[in-house]
């Protein structure tokens, strides 16, 4: 097995045809986020707050710590991974006054080389699906159930 020269960093990006305040709120307010990502949250994202996100269909949860929150600009969290914690950063760039370019970066994966690569690949796919679900929800009012449908055989709660 070859050693990694650099630790993996994942980036998923998408243009959303909605104003930045709506897009930012979709990630901060669990009333909205549950329409395209996790199924339950212990609260809104707020600076310095510890939150728990649940994906009830899979019987899994993640503990989240909000390290930074700049309204309509940036969210920085640490969240629980199978091998430890990693860092996730969202940036929100307004475009034309009615569009927002969202960039999600995940870094700081823990473990050995192969474990970090596996986590990074899973993260890349996961955050890409999250952004696609966000786009459908905000632009068209459709909840696509992408997270639940990604691995239906892994459901523990039908």
Please write out the topology.
Elements: E1 10-16, H1 20-28, H2 30-33, E2 40-41, E3 50-55, E4 60-70, E5 74-81, E6 84-95, E7 99-107, H3 113-140, H4 146-150
Antiparallel strand pairs: 1-7, 2-3, 3-4, 4-5, 5-6, 6-7
Protein architecture, described:
With 158 residues, the chain is α+β, with helices and mostly antiparallel strands. It has one domain: 2-Layer Sandwich (Alpha-D-Glucose-1,6-Bisphosphate, Chain A, domain 4), CATH 3.30.530.20. 29% of the residues lie in helices and 35% in strands. The protein has four helices and seven strands; from the N terminus they run βααββββββαα. The chain has helices at 20-28, 30-33, 113-140, 146-150, and strands at 10-16, 40-41, 50-55, 60-70, 74-81, 84-95, 99-107. A seven-stranded antiparallel beta sheet has the order 1-7-6-5-4-3-2, covered by helices on one side. A hairpin with a 4-residue loop joins β3 and β4 (60-70). It is globular, with a radius of gyration of 16 Å. The model has no long low-confidence stretch (mean pLDDT 94).
Domain tally? 1
CATH superfamily: START domain
Low-confidence stretches: none
Q: From the 3D coordinates, which CATH architecture would you assign?
A: 2-Layer Sandwich
Tally of DSSP helical segments: 4
> What is CATH's topology name?
Alpha-D-Glucose-1,6-Bisphosphate, Chain A, domain 4
- What's the CATH C level? Alpha Beta
**What share of residues are in beta strands?**
25-35%
| Biggest sheet features | 7 strands, antiparallel
The helix/strand class is: alpha+beta
Rg to the nearest angstrom? 16 Å
Overall number of strands: 7
| N→C terminal distance | 39 Å
Shape: globular
Query: Helix share of residues?
Result: 25-40%
Q: What letter string, H or E per element, gives the SSE order?
A: EHHEEEEEEHH
The main sheet orders its strands as: 1-7-6-5-4-3-2
Mean pLDDT across residues: 94
